[in-house]
Protein backbone atom coordinates (compact mmCIF):
# COMPACT_ATOMS: atom_id res chain seq x y z
CA UNK A 1 0.00 0.00 0.00
CA UNK A 2 1.50 3.30 -1.10
CA UNK A 3 1.94 6.25 1.23
CA UNK A 4 -0.14 9.36 0.80
CA UNK A 5 1.65 12.71 0.64
CA UNK A 6 0.46 13.55 4.17
CA UNK A 7 1.64 10.18 5.53
CA UNK A 8 5.09 10.75 4.02
CA UNK A 9 5.22 14.19 5.67
CA UNK A 10 4.23 12.53 8.96
CA UNK A 11 7.03 9.95 8.70
CA UNK A 12 9.64 12.51 7.65
CA UNK A 13 8.73 14.72 10.62
CA UNK A 14 8.79 11.73 12.96
CA UNK A 15 12.20 10.55 11.72
CA UNK A 16 13.66 14.07 11.89
CA UNK A 17 12.43 14.53 15.45
CA UNK A 18 13.99 11.23 16.55
CA UNK A 19 17.28 12.08 14.84
CA UNK A 20 17.45 15.50 16.52
CA UNK A 21 16.26 14.54 20.00
CA UNK A 22 17.10 10.86 20.44
CA UNK A 23 13.53 9.89 21.35
CA UNK A 24 10.20 9.79 19.59
CA UNK A 25 7.75 12.70 19.68
CA UNK A 26 4.56 12.71 21.72
CA UNK A 27 1.18 13.06 20.02
CA UNK A 28 1.12 16.71 21.13
CA UNK A 29 4.54 17.38 19.58
CA UNK A 30 3.47 15.70 16.33
CA UNK A 31 0.30 17.78 16.20
CA UNK A 32 2.26 21.01 16.72
CA UNK A 33 4.99 20.05 14.27
CA UNK A 34 2.56 19.17 11.49
CA UNK A 35 -0.07 21.81 12.36
CA UNK A 36 -2.72 19.17 12.92
CA UNK A 37 -5.95 20.29 14.52
CA UNK A 38 -6.43 17.45 17.00
CA UNK A 39 -4.78 14.46 18.66
CA UNK A 40 -7.46 12.29 17.05
CA UNK A 41 -5.98 13.18 13.65
CA UNK A 42 -2.54 12.16 14.89
CA UNK A 43 -3.97 8.88 16.14
CA UNK A 44 -5.62 8.25 12.75
CA UNK A 45 -2.28 8.72 10.96
CA UNK A 46 -0.49 6.48 13.46
CA UNK A 47 -3.02 3.68 13.00
CA UNK A 48 -2.81 3.94 9.20
CA UNK A 49 1.00 3.85 9.25
CA UNK A 50 0.96 0.89 11.64
CA UNK A 51 -1.30 -0.95 9.21
CA UNK A 52 1.16 -0.21 6.39
CA UNK A 53 4.07 -1.38 8.62
CA UNK A 54 5.86 1.98 8.68
CA UNK A 55 5.39 2.56 12.42
CA UNK A 56 5.20 0.20 15.36
CA UNK A 57 4.51 0.53 19.06
CA UNK A 58 6.64 -0.62 21.99
CA UNK A 59 4.99 -2.11 25.03
CA UNK A 60 4.80 -0.62 28.55
CA UNK A 61 6.82 2.45 27.55
CA UNK A 62 6.08 6.11 27.29
CA UNK A 63 6.82 7.66 23.90
CA UNK A 64 6.70 4.11 22.59
CA UNK A 65 6.21 4.70 18.86
CA UNK A 66 9.15 3.86 16.64
CA UNK A 67 9.96 3.61 12.96
CA UNK A 68 9.43 0.09 11.64
CA UNK A 69 12.06 -1.72 9.52
CA UNK A 70 10.07 -1.09 6.32
CA UNK A 71 10.54 2.70 6.58
CA UNK A 72 14.23 2.35 7.46
CA UNK A 73 14.87 0.04 4.50
CA UNK A 74 13.07 2.27 2.01
CA UNK A 75 14.71 5.41 3.38
CA UNK A 76 18.14 3.78 3.15
CA UNK A 77 17.55 2.78 -0.48
CA UNK A 78 16.42 6.31 -1.31
CA UNK A 79 19.74 7.91 -0.36
CA UNK A 80 22.59 5.37 -0.44
CA UNK A 81 25.21 7.58 -2.10
CA UNK A 82 25.15 10.22 0.62
CA UNK A 83 25.95 7.57 3.22
CA UNK A 84 28.93 6.00 1.49
CA UNK A 85 32.57 7.04 1.21
CA UNK A 86 35.36 5.09 -0.51
CA UNK A 87 37.55 3.00 1.82
CA UNK A 88 40.91 3.15 0.06
CA UNK A 89 43.11 1.11 2.41
CA UNK A 90 45.03 1.44 5.67
CA UNK A 91 47.48 4.12 6.81
CA UNK A 92 50.32 3.58 9.25
CA UNK A 93 50.35 5.58 12.45
CA UNK A 94 53.66 3.97 13.51
CA UNK A 95 56.33 2.67 11.15
CA UNK A 96 55.52 3.26 7.47
CA UNK A 97 53.92 0.36 5.61
CA UNK A 98 53.49 -0.34 1.92
CA UNK A 99 50.47 1.43 0.49
CA UNK A 100 48.07 -1.02 -1.14
CA UNK A 101 45.04 0.33 -2.97
CA UNK A 102 41.68 -1.20 -2.11
CA UNK A 103 38.24 -0.90 -3.66
CA UNK A 104 35.87 -0.94 -0.74
CA UNK A 105 33.12 1.31 0.52
CA UNK A 106 32.46 2.46 4.07
CA UNK A 107 28.69 2.59 4.43
CA UNK A 108 27.33 4.86 7.15
CA UNK A 109 23.83 3.51 6.61
CA UNK A 110 24.63 0.99 9.36
CA UNK A 111 24.43 3.95 11.72
CA UNK A 112 22.45 6.73 10.08
CA UNK A 113 19.88 4.41 8.50
CA UNK A 114 18.71 3.18 11.88
CA UNK A 115 15.91 5.11 13.54
CA UNK A 116 17.31 4.15 16.95
CA UNK A 117 20.61 5.94 16.30
CA UNK A 118 21.18 9.44 17.63
CA UNK A 119 24.14 11.79 18.08
CA UNK A 120 25.45 13.88 20.97
CA UNK A 121 28.37 16.27 21.35
CA UNK A 122 30.71 15.48 24.22
CA UNK A 123 31.37 18.13 26.85
CA UNK A 124 34.31 17.46 29.19
CA UNK A 125 37.18 14.98 29.41
CA UNK A 126 35.89 12.27 31.74
CA UNK A 127 36.28 9.63 28.98
CA UNK A 128 39.57 10.86 27.54
CA UNK A 129 41.44 7.59 28.22
CA UNK A 130 38.91 5.87 25.96
CA UNK A 131 39.88 8.46 23.32
CA UNK A 132 36.61 10.37 23.68
CA UNK A 133 37.51 14.05 23.96
CA UNK A 134 35.75 17.32 24.66
CA UNK A 135 33.93 18.42 21.51
CA UNK A 136 33.78 14.98 19.89
CA UNK A 137 30.55 13.82 18.29
CA UNK A 138 29.33 10.40 19.37
CA UNK A 139 26.80 8.10 17.74
CA UNK A 140 24.64 6.05 20.07
CA UNK A 141 22.04 3.33 19.82
CA UNK A 142 18.93 4.09 21.81
CA UNK A 143 18.60 1.20 24.27
CA UNK A 144 17.23 0.66 27.77
CA UNK A 145 19.63 -2.16 28.73
CA UNK A 146 23.41 -2.57 28.44
CA UNK A 147 26.12 -5.01 29.52
CA UNK A 148 28.78 -4.38 32.14
CA UNK A 149 31.65 -2.46 30.59
CA UNK A 150 29.54 -0.83 27.87
CA UNK A 151 29.93 2.93 27.38
CA UNK A 152 26.46 4.35 27.89
CA UNK A 153 24.51 7.55 28.30
CA UNK A 154 23.02 7.21 31.77
CA UNK A 155 20.33 9.45 33.18
CA UNK A 156 20.88 9.79 36.94
CA UNK A 157 17.94 10.57 39.26
CA UNK A 158 15.85 11.63 36.30
CA UNK A 159 17.78 14.83 35.63
CA UNK A 160 21.54 14.52 35.00
CA UNK A 161 22.84 12.64 31.94
CA UNK A 162 26.44 11.44 31.72
CA UNK A 163 28.63 9.33 29.41
CA UNK A 164 30.42 6.59 31.36
CA UNK A 165 31.20 2.86 31.44
CA UNK A 166 28.48 0.94 33.24
CA UNK A 167 29.17 -1.65 35.93
CA UNK A 168 26.65 -3.38 38.20
CA UNK A 169 27.88 -3.80 41.78
CA UNK A 170 26.56 -5.74 44.82
CA UNK A 171 23.68 -4.22 46.74
CA UNK A 172 21.87 -3.10 43.58
CA UNK A 173 24.40 -0.33 43.03
CA UNK A 174 25.58 1.00 39.70
CA UNK A 175 29.14 2.24 39.16
CA UNK A 176 29.48 4.78 36.37
CA UNK A 177 33.20 4.64 35.66
CA UNK A 178 35.03 7.53 33.97
CA UNK A 179 38.01 6.85 31.72
CA UNK A 180 40.13 9.50 33.40
CA UNK A 181 42.51 8.63 36.22
CA UNK A 182 41.96 12.05 37.79
CA UNK A 183 38.24 11.45 38.29
CA UNK A 184 36.34 9.20 40.69
CA UNK A 185 33.52 6.83 39.69
CA UNK A 186 29.93 7.77 40.34
CA UNK A 187 28.04 5.32 42.59
CA UNK A 188 24.27 5.35 42.23
CA UNK A 189 21.45 3.03 43.39
CA UNK A 190 20.25 0.97 40.44
CA UNK A 191 16.73 2.35 40.71
CA UNK A 192 18.06 5.86 40.05
CA UNK A 193 19.81 5.04 36.77
CA UNK A 194 18.08 4.98 33.40
CA UNK A 195 20.14 3.88 30.39
CA UNK A 196 19.33 6.02 27.36
CA UNK A 197 21.89 4.88 24.80
CA UNK A 198 24.95 2.72 24.09
CA UNK A 199 28.02 4.04 22.26
CA UNK A 200 28.42 3.00 18.62
CA UNK A 201 31.08 5.34 17.24
CA UNK A 202 33.13 8.47 17.89
CA UNK A 203 33.52 11.22 15.28
CA UNK A 204 36.09 13.99 15.48
CA UNK A 205 36.24 16.96 13.14
CA UNK A 206 39.52 18.83 12.63
CA UNK A 207 38.31 21.60 10.35
List the helices and strands and how they pair.
Blueprint: H1 5-21, H2 27-34, H3 39-51, E1 55-57, E2 65-67, H4 69-78, E3 84-87, E4 104-107, H5 109-112, E5 117-121, E6 137-141, E7 151-156, E8 160-169, E9 173-177, E10 186-189, E11 193-203
Antiparallel strand pairs: 1-2, 3-4, 5-6, 6-11, 7-8, 7-11, 8-9, 9-10
Helix pairs in contact: 2-3
At the fourth level of CATH, the homologous superfamily of the largest domain is Umud Fragment, subunit A
Shape: globular
Largest sheet: 7 strands, antiparallel
Helix content: 25-40%
The H-and-E topology, N to C, reads as HHHEEHEEHEEEEEEE
Give the overall average pLDDT. 82
**What Rg do the Cα atoms give?**
20 Å
Distance between the termini: 45 Å
CATH class of the largest domain: Mainly Beta
The secondary structure category is alpha+beta
Number of domains: 3
Number of distinct helices: 5
Question: Which key phrases capture this entry?
Answer:
two-stranded antiparallel sheet; 7-stranded antiparallel beta sheet; Arc Repressor Mutant, subunit A; single chain; Umud Fragment, subunit A; 5 helices; 207 residues
Structure in words:
This protein is of the alpha+beta class. The chain is 25% helix and 29% strand. The chain folds into 3 domains: 74 residues, Arc Repressor Mutant, subunit A (Orthogonal Bundle), CATH 1.10.10.10; 30 residues, no CATH class; 88 residues, Umud Fragment, subunit A, CATH 2.10.109.10.
Summarize the structure.
This protein is 25% helix and 29% strand. It is α+β, with helices and mostly antiparallel strands and 207 residues long.
Amino acid sequence: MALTKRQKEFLDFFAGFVEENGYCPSYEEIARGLHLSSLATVHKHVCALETKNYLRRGFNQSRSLELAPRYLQEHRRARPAALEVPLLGRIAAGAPVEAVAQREVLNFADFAGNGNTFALQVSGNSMIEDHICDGDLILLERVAQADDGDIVVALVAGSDATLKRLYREPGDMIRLQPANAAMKPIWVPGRDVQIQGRLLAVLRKYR
